[in-house]
Amino acid sequence: MSEATTSAAQSAASNEVRYLTPPPIEVKKSKYCRFKKYGIKYIDYKNPDFLKNFINEQGKLLPTRITGNSSKYQRKVAQAVKRARHMALLPFVGDLLK
Fold first, then answer.
1. What are 3-31's pLDDT values in tens digits?
2. How far is 48 from 98, CA to CA, in rounded Å?
3. CA dist 21 to 14, 24, 28, 31, Å?
């Protein structure tokens, strides 16, 4: 019986999962409004390289949940992108945008 109990104890011990280092836990970075952080008051529509950060490959505006902009600055970015499109600084359709 002692052999049966020791083999049962060994099999129970082998079923335990042990880590040498703790398992990695993904920590989400909090999103922030870059305009508030850096004190940017005016979004220049004549700077298409900066505005390309806020549009995807299709030429659509990225939403606030992805960019982290506050609603105030998201509206200003949208207005700047529309002005840049109208002045032909940005394309309306982004086939070869990036």
1. 666 665 666 566 777 667 766 777 777 88
2. 12
3. 18, 9, 21, 29
Taking only the tens place, the pLDDT of each residue in 21-79 is 766 777 777 888 999 999 999 999 999 999 999 999 888 999 999 999 999 999 999 99
> What domains can be seen in the chain, in order of their start residue?
34-98 (4.10.640.10)
**Local structure of 60: helix, strand or coil:** coil
> In terms of pTM, does the model score above 0.70?
no
Contact between 74 and 65 (Cβ < 8 Å): no
Quote the Cα angle for 80-86-89, to 5°. 75
Tokens 């070869």 belong to residue: 96
Alpha-carbon torsion 15, 16, 22, 25, what sign? Answer: positive
The Cα–Cα gap between 48 and 22 comes to 45
